[in-house]
Specification:
Layout: E1 6-10, H1 14-26, E2 30-34, H2 40-47, E3 51-55, H3 63-70, E4 78-82, H4 87-95, E5 100-103, H5 108-123, H6 131-134, E6 138-141, E7 144-147, E8 152-155, E9 158-160, H7 164-174, E10 181-182, H8 183-191, H9 200-213, E11 221-226, E12 230-235, H10 237-240
């Protein structure tokens, strides 16, 4: 018999939390609830959830700050709840490491389905990576090391702080040098084929990665925009030889 999954619901609206608790328990989940941002991390450590439903607007620590702290300790899947329709809020949340988002008001059945999909992608052996990329977990070029075992990126002699989705995207492109990928292909490989977000998410992640890579000169490689197509990790001949 499959072990039940643990979901942590973080929302200061107790009516929403109780409603979601009923839906998730009916579907076989174990449910914990948290109502303030300041209590989230201690709750995560106590109950070790399999997935977190996180409201962005909380008393105490905000949802964005929680994401920053959470991703320093855990890669647990997170689905954000937001009452805002601002695209930038969604992109910031995804960039910080959230796996999906849903706008309030929402149907509990849809949220349940989205949580199941996030868990399926997270636990799928092929999620966010191709067969070729699975063969190696560390990509090395002159002045660049992308280590998916330790989830670390080194540029020159310094280690760079990079959220999980940025690291996965950099690793994916660097694992396939000089090959062009469309935004849709990148979304499918990194976020999953059923991702509900927008292509602009890819552009924002690429820009953030470039800012971090550009702390030193790197003439032998670059993330290059192929206009009207997508992106590629361009590797110069000197680095290939």
């Amino acid at each position: 018999m499959e072990e039940s999954k643990r979901v942590l619901i973080v929302d200061d609206d107790k009516h929403i939390s109780e409603l979601l608790k009923l839906y998730f328990e009916k579907d076989g989940f174990e449910v914990s609830s948290c109502y303030t941002g300041d209590a989230v991390m201690s709750m995560v450590r106590a109950v070790t959830p399999d997935v977190i439903i996180l409201d962005l607007m909380l008393p105490g620590m905000s949802g964005f700050d929680i994401m920053r702290q959470l991703r320093r300790e855990s890669d647990v899947p997170v689905l954000m709840l937001t009452a805002r329709s601002d695209t930038l809020d969604k992109i910031i949340g995804l960039e910080l490491g959230a796996d999906d988002y849903i706008l309030k008001p929402f149907e509990p059945k849809e949220l349940l389905a989205r949580v199941k999909e996030v868990l399926r992608r997270f636990h799928s052996p092929g999620a966010a990576r191709t067969a070729e990329a699975n063969k190696r977990e560390v990509v090395t070029y002159p002045d660049l090391v992308v280590d998916r075992i330790r989830y670390a990126v080194r540029i020159g002699d310094r280690e760079i702080d990079m959220p999980p989705k940025q690291l996965e995207l950099l690793f994916f492109l660097a694992s396939h040098p000089n090959r062009v990928y469309t935004r849709d292909q990148i979304l499918e490989h990194i976020w999953g084929m059923d991702y509900y977000g927008e292509q602009r998410t890819v552009d924002v992640h690429i820009n953030r990665i470039r800012e971090k890579l550009d702390v030193i000169e790197h003439p032998l490689w670059q993330i290059k925009t192929v206009w009207s197509v997508g992106y590629k990790f361009e590797l110069k001949e000197q680095a290939e030889s």
